Amino acid sequence: MSKAALRQATREALANTSVCSALGKFADNYVIAREQAYRHKDFEGLRREVARIKREAAERMEELAIQFSREATRRGATVFRAATAQDAREYIARLAKSKDIKTIVKSKSMASEEIHLNEYLKEQGLEAVETDLGEWIIQLACQRPSHMVMPAIHMSRNEVAEIFSREIKEPVEPDISSMVKLARRELRKKFLSSWMGISGANIAVAETGTIVMVTNEGNGRLTTTLPPVHVIIVGLEKLVPRFTDIVPILEVLPRSATAQHITTYVTMITGAVPAVDPNGNYHEQKELHIILLDNGRTRMAGDPVFREALQCVRCAACLNVCPIYQLVGGVFGDVYTGGIGTVLTAFFTDPQKAQQVQNLCLGCERCRDYCSGNIDLPGLIGELRRRTVEKEGMSYVQRVIFEKVLVNRRVFHKLLKAASRLQKPFTREGKIRHLPLFLAGLTEGRSLPAIAEIPFRERVDKLPRPGRVVDRVAFFSGCLVDFVYPGIGESVAKVLASLGFEMLCPEGQTCCGYPARQVGLTNSFTELARQNIAAFENINARYVLTACPTCAEALKFLYPQLLADDPVWSKRARWLAEKVTDFSSFVFAHREKLVPFMIPLKQKVTYHDSCHLKRRLRVTGEPRQLLIDAGAELVEMTPAALCCGFGGSYSIKFPELSRSVLDRKLQAVLGSGAEVVALDCPGCQMQISGGLDHERRPIRVMHTAEILASCIAGTVQVQDGKNN
Amino acid sequence: MALNKELLPDRNRNLEQLYEEFVTRARALGTEVYRVSDLAKARELVVKLVREMGARKVALAESPLVTALDLAAAVAGAGAEVTGGNPRERAGAADLGISSFEMAIAETGTLVQDATEIDQRLVSMLPPAHLAVVSTRRLVGTLMEAIYSLAARGQIPGYLAFISGPSRTADIERVLTIGVHGPGRVVVIFIDEGGCAGE
Ligand code: SF4
Ligand code: SF4
């Protein structure tokens, strides 16, 4: 898929409002229902346990495969090891033909989707009927499932009625209950006449040769019981060592997938059991074939980074909470969709497609919080990008921007100053409403703030200072504060001054490097990390403070990770990481000293949780308490914890997606009735204030530092990006 | 979640509490739950339920408990007929299937059955309604207890069925609909005394 084709596909998906609203509505309810399902359960403990079991299984994959084969064979199954998709497909077709079987019933199996089994069987003159209601609808519509757990979530009842009418050649009313009855009636005929059933598996136990399947409709039970020949396709990653390992997986899977405590049916098959064929003959042991599918899994298990993806239990929670998936559905992926889909696609189905799709990830990190297998999905997607760039290279222009400009502090800063002058003709009231040429995408539905005439770095000499210095704090400004929102930096200085802290701004600091990482340029990222570490080493300060959570994440978590293998730099990176804290947490820790000086704000304020602050730094309560201390009337927006859609260069690459995510955010903001949106991230500030400005909504967007500064007695004019 | 002692089978665990918990969970899933003191009462209840459901044809999956209850006589007593033929015909023609279960899990409202025998499976799959009988003493607290006690048996049964409520789907517009491929109605009778026949 080309870049252009991907953009086209995302546009079409966005235009399809029924997909967006079905997924969006489901997603909002999902979070609440899931919360309920986990009441009295220790999700963190459970997922750590799942991760431990699956990690062990990934490390011992081959050994477990051998053990499983031995045990299942002992219990009467025939186990076939399929190295590739083609091996698996051919095995099944051969088996069916050898028995003169024409019709096959299938219960839902992602592995069979992965190997494109249905198309292949069709080419071979065999009919495979999907029996899961959603899958059947999709099959009749000649589509592909758009969700791992709810394949037909993108369709309306009217569409389903049309599809059914075509199938049974009679008009069908769009009434859900009668359509379900119709499916029962039609599919029952298939079940009763089929000689072969194909199913997937959720867990395969090496110790006992047991296959575990979870379903709600009961089609899985019929598929595995009625036909006298049963084929199970199971990916090697479904193996676990022990029978008792089933427990934590069964506890998280339904809860995370559909917020059920357990699915209606959990079926555990250990070896071949009796069957009665369509002619009524009793078979002591049915024919049970288990296909252990590799198709990239061994390669994944051998990869020190991507092995982690094998911890996935396919609960689809990562899709359910992903803001991009909610907008574009199945476009975000291939057979497997969403964040995990991107990774699996790279290894199991279509590496080319994965390369395009990986860019759809906005990096909001929400999926990581919900993952039942405790997988760092955003990290894995980042690694995919890095490898892609390493292999395929990057466009000349991008290379120049990152490798020549960004890592060269002087050139980079000069360029931004020049931009500040050049933008003049496009600026109105401090906002850029139309940008020329290649930046045009940036202003689609969103105004941008202008680049400051005087960057923060040139204002350092005039910053407020404390009367009596109790300690020194070094400030990492980051690009946005430095060049777009210098007012935030000044506010930070004012708040710190009132607490008795002197603010130092090391000159050698530069961009934190996150954008370089985002596009997969690790070398540039490393270079910037070293520059920044060196810049702060020379400063004698107890803390390093930043007013941007993305910068904080880079300094605190990513630098030590990035430089872990470098004997000299890893120590220096850890030294810096330990000193780093975000603005709100720091002030929160010293707030008793602040409160007495504050003039109550007396405004309705709603707080926007920035993804990186909430999910990486785990800061949510601190800024809220500070706002309350400042006398604000805090009103929460619903849904809470929604990404603003900024995602750095993402907003340039996928302006429509960025804008659509922002729209949901703006609705939440407006719904709260607040006069001010408070936040702790200049990137979100740019995005949200841009959106509100574009809609001409008179709601101010302010960094917590700006709000606190404005409440401190003897206040200067509040800077909100308009008048700098 | 290391092996938590509190979660392991505790024989002294209050059966009444487990039962209450089961009832709450199972009813939330749409299962109808009854409890009787002994086999005779159970038989009476079966007669009453078969009548109430208006079931004309009933499929039975043989088991020691089903035999002890003399369900064939009970079905006849309710004016219904026990289906015959091969197992597919027996289950396929019935409007109610009756089978016995080995275990019930309070936490999730789940019934557990060794369904290795084809009759057991078909009777709980094909008819539109399913009646389960189980000994009250076979209630366990959690899924974990159930799995650990199965693991402790050594040999895992060929086909284990965990059933929690009637068959359901939400595949069209996320609207919950009951009874798609499996039974739309699930009834369970807990039997306090004599319910472990054949142990
Ligand atoms: S990081 Fe955010 S955008 Fe990316 S896959 Fe996860 S939830 Fe989706
Ligand atoms: S990656 Fe995690 S959240 Fe996503 S399907 Fe797998 S286990 Fe579930």
Descriptive report:
The complex is a heterodimer of chains A (724) and B (199). Chain A contains 35 helices and 23 strands. In chain A, 50% of the residues lie in helices and 12% in strands. Chain A has 724 residues and is α/β, with parallel strands linked by helices. In chain A, the strands form six sheets. Chain A has a six-stranded parallel beta sheet with strand order 1-12-7-4-2-3, with helices on both faces. In chain A, strands 8-5-6-9 form a four-stranded mixed beta sheet, sandwiched between helices. Chain A folds into three domains: 3-274 and 281-297, NagB/RpiA/CoA transferase-like (Rossmann fold); 298-315 and 334-392, no CATH class; 456-712, no CATH class. In chain B, the strands form three sheets. In chain B, strands 1-12-7-4-2-3 form a six-stranded parallel beta sheet, sandwiched between helices. Chain B has a single domain, classed as Rossmann fold (3-Layer(aba) Sandwich), CATH 3.40.50.10420. Chain B has helices at residues 15-29, 39-53, 64-68, 71-77, 87-93, 118-125, 143-152; strands at 32-36, 57-60, 81-82, 96-101, 103-105, 110-114, 129-135, 139-140, 159-163, 168-169, 177-178, 185-191. Chain B starts with 14 loop residues before the first helix and ends in an 8-residue tail after the last strand. Chain B contains seven helices and twelve strands. In chain B, strand 10 and strand 11 (177-178) form a beta hairpin. Mean pLDDT of chain B is 90; it is low at 1-8. With 199 residues, chain B is of the alpha/beta class. Strand 9 (265-270) of chain A pairs antiparallel with strand 9 (159-163) of chain B. One iron/sulfur cluster (SF4) binds at residues 256, 312-318, 340, 370-373, 375, 377 of chain A.
